[in-house]
Amino acid sequence: MNKTLFFLCLPMMMLAQKQKIAGTVMNTENEKLSAVNIVLYNSKNEFIKELKTDGSGVFILEGIDEQRVKLVVNNNGYLLFEKNLDLENPEALQIILRKETREIEDVVMTKRKPVVKRKVDRLEFNVENSNISSLNAWEILKKTPNVTANNNVLTVKGSTGILVTINDKKVMLTGDELKNLLENTQGDEVKSIEVITNPPAKYEASGSAVLNIVMKKNKIEGYRGIVSSKYIQTQYAKAVFGLSQYYKKDKLSVMASYYKGMGTYFREGTDYVRYPESETTWVSTMNRKDKNTNQNTLNFNVEYELDSLTNLSLNYSGYFSPKSYGIYDVPTLIYDNRDIVESHYRTLNDHASSSINNSVSFQIDRKFNKKSSLTWINYFTGNNTDKYQNVNTYLNFAGQSPREEHFMTRNDADVKLYSTQLDYQWKGEKLEVESGVKYSFVKTNSKLDFSDNENGLMQFRPAKSSDFNYKEHNFALYSSLSYNIGQWNFKGGLRAEMTDLEGIVSEPYNHNKNNYWNFFPTFYAQYTTENKHEFGLSYGKRISRPFYSWLNPAKSYYNLFSYFQGDPELKATIIHNLNLSYSWKDWHVDLYYRKELYPAMEISYQVPETNNVVYNFTNIEKGQAFGTSLYKSLQIKPWWNLVLSENLEHNENYFNGVDGILHQNKVWNWMSDISTSFTLDKNNDWKMEIGHRYFSSGIQGPFRISSNWSAYFVMNRKFFNKKLEAALIVNDIFKSTRQKVVTKYANQDNYFLDYTDTQGFTLSLKYSFGNQSVKNAKTIRKTSEQDRL
């Protein structure tokens, strides 16, 4: 094994001889053209470098390691010029540009529609210069084939636990924080979205699938900035203000951004719990309202080209939310078997929380020659959350004197993680080899203090408090091989990951220590006919490790009768994915099968002896699903596009109930996304879109989740030579996203109604200044562990 790693990492030092070639750019009237942009690409159409002509229209090609390159000249007012060059046989270059003529009378000029391309190990959704590139990255992601977003939860072919990367670099956010990041990422900086159902061995083994957002490279020198503002009106108002700045000069690229958010967040819910033992029904109304007027997001990227073969990158990202607070007023009515209220109580939950997240990473990219390269990255993050609640309960039970109960909790959680990773790549004409090694270390501490009232004084209760310490070491090795022969493409790989963990709980004392290896094979095959019909087969094994908070067994009380509890012995979920694909022109069809061993999820169960409802993270026995997905884009008119994205799946979950019996929960699930867009002017500055999303009923362990649907409307308009952009978005027009989640088996009989306040409208303004040709600096690679914070 040591010899294999030695030869994989051995650099190939045979560099191509560098040539120096002079050229001139002029027009058909023999006028020398100055400041003309000239871009060079290699034989694989990958960007090499960019230069400009001087005042005499002259340019010099030098310091290029490639033998064969493509030269592209794209100058405003002139037709595109392309030429393939053999630098081993240099020739004098005299480029003549012809002026562009365009008839626009009775013609609507539109951008092209997004291009969907099937590769051997992924589906590429190319949106560069397309008719959806004016949207933000979040909206583009929701329009990607095989991707759906239900209540802001991303799924790929019905599977959750998605790993999101930017330029193959891990994004360390989930849920609303991830959504906010992507909403503040400009769509015209996105080149493509890659949907990787069975990720290759170089990717982290965690997560069921990968969504990789490929950004355009920062090619042109200059400075630009973007000032943006957004007003959101749902039940209550919210706002976001932001400033992004980009700069590139010679070998230096810099990006810095700051966003400040504020608002009031609302969620409606009603809990119904029926206890057959006492023949009572408990109904709680929970209208939760939280304020957060100081949400701060900072990002800073700097990239420096040390020489033509070496790049250095530094990244900092931070999120600061000093205080989110609210008071929940939760009345509960208790009905007897005649539906008459026999008892009631009222809970007032006064709570506040704060959150701080800091991440720093440093990356070195080194090319040995045109075939081989090495990347080394180090990453550190620190995450701290502090949650406080003061809960008063006023009880009025039948046959008892009215009384008041009072308790307070404070939960401080601190997570620190470090990771280092080394990746090597060698790429030939038909053969490609990738290999790498990674080590990461995570340390978490979660302290819960519980106090309640005794004789008018708050007393600390050690039995209900806890100190949870957790350490985890991960070591990984991987290697993969790709081979192209004629109409066949093959790729295979193997990743090995070792996990060494230790968790210690103070009260009640629990010590969990474990060490294990996992192996994750991947295989891909693709065949393309002469008529461009593409057939594919892929298999991949994945792992989904639990969030660190899921491992804490301390009881976190919501009220006297309800609490959340984790499990320090929670198992990681093993996932097997098998996929068959077919593509031809704009038709893309997938058949897939997914098997999950010991899926980890949140479930609830009622305890009749204490009238408690417990929310618990646990493993169920297994889950499996099979289904088919379809994506089709129809260009009805040059200005009118229709997109169909459909997924039909049969899903099964097997879980051990509180009665000790293995239960099966299964459902046919249909997800449908239909949208139509219009370009309303000749300059492609005014666009409109109408869409409809439908989700039929689903399952999660013992839960059965009702269907929901939503309709939306988008209007986008650019002004002042595209520098000012205004948008109107109306979401959940008919307020149809309410869901009912039911548990009903054995003596478990409960459900809750949930609405996440999605109906509303958004008004946004974005003003761009400076050189608008500048693109975003390369985002730093991150690791998978922070996704479990």
Automatic annotation (TrEMBL):
InterPro entries: Beta-barrel_TonB_sf (IPR036942), OMP_b-brl_3 (IPR041700). One of its GO terms (cellular component) is cell outer membrane. It is found in: Cell outer membrane. Pfam families: OMP_b-brl_3 (PF14905). Keywords: Cell outer membrane, Membrane, Receptor. Residues 366-767 form the Outer membrane protein beta-barrel domain. This is Outer membrane receptor proteins, mostly Fe transport. It comes from Chryseobacterium contaminans.
